Amino acid sequence: MNNPKPPRLASFLVWLRHNRTTAESLLGDLAEEFISQRSNAWYWGQALSTLGFGGVKLRPGKEGGVQAGLPNGFWNDIRYAARSLRKNPGVTAMAMVAIALGIGVNTVVFTLFNAIALRPLPVPDAGRVIAVYQVFQGKNTTRYVNGSSSYFSLSEYQNYRGNNHVLSGLAAYYPGFSATLAGERPRELSGQLASCNYFDVVNVQPVLGRGFRQQECGARNAGPVVVLSDKLWRGAFGADPEILGKSITLNRVPLTVVGVASPGFHGADAFASDFWVPLSMDPSIHPGDSLANENLSWLAMVGRLKPGVTVAAARADLSVIAGRIDRLYPGRKTTLSVDVANFMGEPEMRHGLLQVTSVIFAAVGLVLLIACANVANLLLARGTARKKEIAVRLSVGATRGRLIRQLLTESVLLALPGAAAGALLAAFASGTLLRWMLSHLPVEIPLAFNGAPDLRVLIFTLGLSVLTGIVFGLAPALQSSRPDLTLALKEESAGAGTHRSTGFLRGALVAAQVSVCLVLLITAGLLVRGILAAQSIEPGFQARNVSVTQFDLKLQGYDDTRAAAFHRALQERVSAIPGVDAVGRATVAPLSMNVWGTAIRLPGQNAVTFIHYDAVTPEYFSVLAIPIVRGRNFLPSEENAHAKVAIVMESTARKLWPDQDPLGKIFSAEEGPKGSESFQIVGVAKDTHTSSLSAVDPYFFYFPLSSDDQLAAQLLVHSKIPPAETERNIIAAARRLDPNVLARVRQIEDNIDLYRVPGRIAAALAAVLGGFALLLASVGIYGVVSYTVSRRIREIGIRVTLGARAGEVVRLMMRGAMIPVLCGALLGLLACMSVSRILSSVLYGINPLDPLAFAGVTLFLLGVALLASYVPARRAARVDPMDALRYE
Fold first, then answer.
1. What is residue 326's three-state secondary structure?
2. Chain mean pLDDT for the chain
3. N or C: which end of the chain has fewer CB within 10 A?
């Protein structure tokens, strides 16, 4: 056979003769994997015969290749990769643990995001159920929702339901409808007013009884029936098997139970529904008459596609109907949002969720990035040790691309067990994390979704593991597949020699680990500092031992006159309770995340100023210990009298009337509940944090509580007795006046906690992620220094022989290790200066560039890095010179 010889083959054969032992250890791997060209078969036969291995049979493989007892291709790569990883159990285990942590935290976050925003509703054939929302553009003076997503009026729903050609059914429901269940102890429920075809469209029929009949949705108040959720049926009625036909009372309206929903069905909304009532009952069970208001956006819509109809086709058909409706409102243009229904289908809610999730994904992605850098460093070290093996394969004709493919197969195979561990972590941790976050909220939020992983999560995890394997394996594969063949074949030890480029790449990876770790740790430090600062923020009013009570008077059919009489009687009863020293009323409790606003205009000015305001009784200021620093308080005679007076905060007075006395100043309310009326300033109150914990309101006014505010009024009570006892006394007093009225009591301190919760959750997550990052970075630094020491054993022995002291050796090793650490710390500080500004909304009283957090965390990380590098450096200084000189 006269085939031309591959390059460097003669030198390779010479090397084989003098390194028979090494050749024998490589033979099995070489025979199985790297005979990839038919033209090389004769030379392999010659080489094996020279070494005395003439019994190895080579036969032509598929596509002109050569097989040595095993098939070429993908499966051969996997088998060889598995055997190669098994030979290095320590490196393999460390890499798998690092990747498991990185992929695990990413999978947990994706699992929760999938449950909230991606997974279809838990109904049969959910992929054909769509949610429809509308966005108004152009002139629209009737709804004040221009440019944002909106629900539908009843007439709009009927138009879409009756004129579409793509849906087998279109249902409407009013989500988040609050009602009071009458009984010995009234309880607040959250339910839905729904069209009669609701259960048919979602295709989930009650397990007991039935859904709604068409005649129950005809005339107003024609359907006094209710379908209970399984949870309510079991919790409030003890799973009574005879519940059908019995009557319950919601908002003073008796309703007959006709069905119980199937377990696990909580409606088509993110918040679990306790009951469903026909839309026809709206005038009696819900204050106001929403059915007759054609300009009220109050109904959500879900539809089921006809067979063969796509979402795009449904969107196009419904958009035609939207265009016809727009012609009734000249200048208005409506855009429809039509997508497969899920728990977070509303565009604005989805947008907000995406913003929050993107920030969390960025954080957990940084942890995965550190894990990738860590494993890449391990593979770089392992690749250097395999330098001679790779050189042999290149010498006998293997292409660089073929080697890169094999090395990437090893790295992907290394990531797959990490993906499996990450999936298991997500299965156990996602639900636990969701319950933990909800348990830390001061209020109970019933959610309809669950955090169990599904097929989408498994696909995400698998894809992420493959991508991760490629990311952390690509640089080592590229670096390892281009050795100097002459030097590699001549070296006596596979561990001798280090390329400068390899050392630079390892240092760059360490720098990346440190910079990313520093970002996470400083973020956690800022959030923890923010939490501590939030604990000490003085809101400007007395919050301790102040109870706030809300009532469902409007739901119980009260008007303003009856509500005023109820409040007067209740205030007298509560004031007489021993231990109660102040009782007042207000429409908005401080820091309740509920804001009333209007626009005012000063005399002689064309510009308007938007303000927040609260309507209060004179006792309000004594309950919260808010001093009136100038002027006077409201008079008892000004309550319920529509008095045209106001009290302003200090900072607001300084902004609106700088260098002037605000007392007696006149302004007019241009819009909102106060109409176009003129008011006079009679007092100046101390600044308080009323609408936000982070700062005093820019512009804030107090008005006297008028007769029009009684339905919204809340009772504020300051007492010297324990809060739980105060709550019992208030509820008992309210029940004596009207046993059907629901009184909801909470503490002002709970309101403050609502502002602290996001920071607490973010700080906890950042601390956990920062801990993972610190652990991975420390292991990475330790591994790099240990590897560097092992590569320089002979050099260290020579230095010690020539008189170098142990301290000098330690400094030499640590100097090389700390240079990339310091570079990474500098890059991390620069990145943190940008990232920290995003956190300003939850950093109460803390500068986003807080020097204590920046300096303290940086010094702590550098200290950990010093310790991680000192241990192997100290071990290097203790090497026996004679052993080092004989080291191979």
1. helix
2. 79
3. N
List, for residues 320-337, the tens digit of each pLDDT value: 999 998 888 877 888 898
CA distance 498 to 699: 67
Contact criterion met (CB below 8 Å) for 812 and 872: no
Amino acid, res. 353: L
Q: Which of 295, 264, 298 is nearest to 176 (CA)?
A: 298
Query: How confident is residue 143, by pLDDT bands cut at 50, 70 and 90?
Result: low
**Chain segment 682-703, per-residue pLDDT in tens:** 999 999 998 888 788 889 999 9
Instruction: Give whole-number Cα distances, 404 to 52, 335, 408, 729, 863, in Å.
Output: 31, 51, 6, 76, 38
Entry field: residues in the chain: 888
* CB-count burial class (<10 Å; 0-12, 13-18, 19+) for 62: exposed
Cα–Cα distance for residue pair 769/780, rounded to 1 Å: 16
Query: Could you give the count of Cα atoms lying within 13 Å of 794 in the half-sphere of its Cβ?
Result: 10
Question: Which pLDDT tens digit goes with each residue over 584-629?
Answer: 999 999 988 888 888 898 988 888 888 999 999 999 999 999 999 9
Give the Cα separation of 774 and 789 in Å (integer).
22
More confident residue, 210 or 677: 210
Q: Above 80 in pLDDT, residue 644?
A: yes
CA distance 494 to 791: 11
pLDDT at position 193:
93
* Contact by Cβ (8 Å): 352, 340: no
Residue with tokens 């908002």, as numbered in its chain: 251
Give the integer Cα–Cα distance in Å for 488 and 15. 11
Tell me which H or E stretch contains 828: helix 806-835
Q: Is pLDDT at 65 greater than 50 in this prediction?
A: no
Distance, in Å, from the CA atom of 363 to the CA atom of 370, rounded to the nearest integer, reads 11
Q: Are 855 and 832 in contact (CB under 8 A)?
A: no
Residue 706 gets the label, from left (phi > 0), alpha (psi -120 to 50) or beta, of: beta
Nearest in space to 835 (alpha carbons), one of 361, 363, 355: 363
Determine the number of helices (DSSP H) and then strands (DSSP E) in the chain. Answer: 25, 24
Pairwise CA distance, residues 418 & 374, whole Å: 14
Question: What pLDDT, on the 0 to 100 scale, is given for residue 2?
Answer: 45
SS3 (DSSP) at 232: helix
- pLDDT tens-place string over residues 710-723: 999 999 999 999 99
How many other CB atoms are found less than 10 A from the CB of residue 863? Answer: 10
9: helix, coil or strand? helix
Measured CA to CA, the distance from residue 260 to residue 275 in angstroms comes to 9
Give 374-399 as a DSSP string.
HHHHHHHHHHHHTHHHHHHHHHTT--
Structure tokens given for 295: 């300009």
Q: What angle do CA 723, 728, 732 make, to 5 degrees?
A: 145
User: 247 has which bridge partners?
Assistant: 256
Classify 494 as helix, strand or coil: coil
By the 10 Å C-beta count (0-12 exposed, 13-18 middle, 19+ buried), 19 is classed as: middle
Contact residues for 581 (Cβ-Cβ < 8 A; gap 6+): 718, 719, 720
Alpha-carbon span 622 to 55, nearest angstrom = 101
More confident residue, 780 or 339: 339
pLDDT > 50? residue 224? yes
pTM > 0.85: yes or no = no
Is the pLDDT higher at 298 or at 357?
298
Q: Would you say 600 and 668 are in contact if contact means Cβ atoms under 8 Å apart?
A: yes
Helix, strand, coil percentages, rounded to 5, for the chain: 55, 15, 30
Report whether 721 contacts 578 (CB < 8 A): yes
Q: Which residues contact 429 (CB under 8 A, 6 or more apart)?
A: 104, 108
Residue 715 near residue 746, CB atoms below 8 Å: no
At a CB cut-off of 8 Å and minimum separation 6, what does 666 contact? 603, 678, 679, 680, 681
